[in-house]
Design goal:
single chain; 289 residues; alpha+beta; Uridine Diphospho-n-acetylenolpyruvylglucosamine Reductase, domain 2; Uridine Diphospho-n-acetylenolpyruvylglucosamine Reductase, domain 3; Enolase-like, domain 1; 3 domains; 5-stranded antiparallel beta sheet; 3-stranded parallel beta sheet; globular
Length: 289
Amino acid sequence: MKPARFAYARPQTLAEALVLLATHGSDASILAGGQSLMPMLNLRMSQPAILVDINSIPDLALITMRDGQLAIGGRARHNDVMHSELLPSSNSLLKRALPYVAHAAIRNRGTLGGSLALSDPAAELPACATCLDARIVAVSTRGERVIPASDFFRGLYTTALEQDELIHRVEFPLLDTNWHVEFDEVARRRGDFAIAGLALAVKLDSRRIAECRIVFAGVEAFPRRMAPVEAALTGSLLTDLSVRAEAFEILAQTLDPLEEGEYPAVYRRHLARVLLNRLLTRICEREQA
């Protein structure tokens, strides 16, 4: 199919883009990488009156350290983020998760901001942003607005972004060496949409879990912290399998899985448990090595 007719604008400055968004509101769509938008246009699932192409706007693709945090521009390409020299120094979960994002050709065009703004439940980066307590900085003609990742994702393909806002940058706090991060997912084939994925960050103190953050992708309608499960694991030894078993039971009660004919809720609950056990074991083995 071909997309419905639309007007096209390619602003050269951020101010121009924000005026266009303020003027057209819900009738405007932002084009950055286009990896999700273009198929939706062709299928006429999205029919904007105007497409605002932000690829000529400077500074939206910057990856830098800013106020002690890793700041990534909303238009930064997945591959540029994945290969940035700044990622290893941030003890970054992104370094582990980005290779799972689709395929190399898509990572060459797809953007961090686009992934977060779409809020696809199967996407890896929304789960990572939530796990890392990232801050999404949205801009409009009204100024900047900082939205914690925990408040940004509201539901299936739904975020806290207003119609006249775009993601300027995402700020990721740096993790010290006491934190251990892991990511893994289950998909039919590498690069396919995740049936279930897990972003995990564990802070250890003498092999005891001092703090942990557990966020799933693909399991629920949107990423969120599994607070009851985190509380059950906190304070225990990483090797304590009895505590881990109790946490798995709490996990089953805490999750509200997506229900699909091919992948029912019970299957996603099973995958969530498998992934959590796998990543805790991986961290334990690395710690003992």
